[in-house]
Specification:
The chain is mostly helical. The chain is about 35% helix and about 5% strand.
Length: about 200
């Protein structure tokens, strides 16, 4: 993230340039940071080095020779953090597997599943099967319920997020948690069960 909290998301990988060999950064997307005042990333070796008084990169070595980035302007922009994968090995295409499972769990009709996933319905089923407004409405209700349940599960982990959009979505959960936490505790004996048929204040 960059800037003040909650910050601005930064891309996890440097963008690929057409015709230029792409080399992923070391550490699965975690760049070498340059957050200290008076330091910056060398534009040649990408290391964090000190800056001269004039703002240029100090003379330093890359291996046994002088780095060609010495005495040049530091690389811009300087990232202060990077995203880690939500799950090791998870790709954008992998999210489609999870969405397909949601559709199966909701009992969505095959023709609507295919439409949503961008697949063609093969054979005669593709000729005679059609999607109704009722199917779409039921799908919307089901997906909304799953989405709200996932937000509640996320809120159980933490009610704040550095991602601005998610932090706003967690707002109602955060307010609900604060209200529950601010309620006074019940007085002693307030929840004590009474025997059936006995009235308060009456002794045997």
């Amino acid at each position: 993230m960059s800037g003040l909290w909650p910050g601005t998301p930064l891309p996890p990988w440097p963008p690929a340039q057409p015709g230029v060999p792409f080399t992923p950064p070391a550490g699965r997307g975690i760049p070498r940071l340059a957050g200290k005042e008076g330091s910056g990333r060398c534009p040649a070796c990408n290391r964090t080095v000190l800056l001269r008084r004039d703002g240029l990169v100090i003379s330093h070595k890359a291996g046994d020779v002088r780095c060609p980035g010495s005495a040049h302007e530091p690389a811009e922009p300087v990232p202060v953090a990077s995203w880690l994968p939500l799950r090791v090995g998870l790709t954008p295409h992998g999210l489609r597997h999870g969405h397909q499972t949601w559709l199966d769990d909701l009992g969505v009709r095959y023709v609507l599943q295919s439409d949503r996933m961008g697949h063609e319905v093969p054979g005669m089923r593709g000729v005679y099967s059609h999607i109704t407004s009722g199917m779409r409405e039921a799908l919307t209700v089901g997906l909304q319920a799953l989405w709200e349940a996932s937000l509640r599960e996320r809120g159980r982990i933490a009610t704040r997020s550095p991602v601005r959009v998610l932090d706003a979505l967690l707002g109602p959960i955060r307010e609900s948690t604060n209200k529950i936490g601010s309620q006074s505790a019940p007085k002693p004996g307030h929840l004590t069960a009474r025997r059936p048929g006995r009235r308060p204040g009456r002794t045997s």
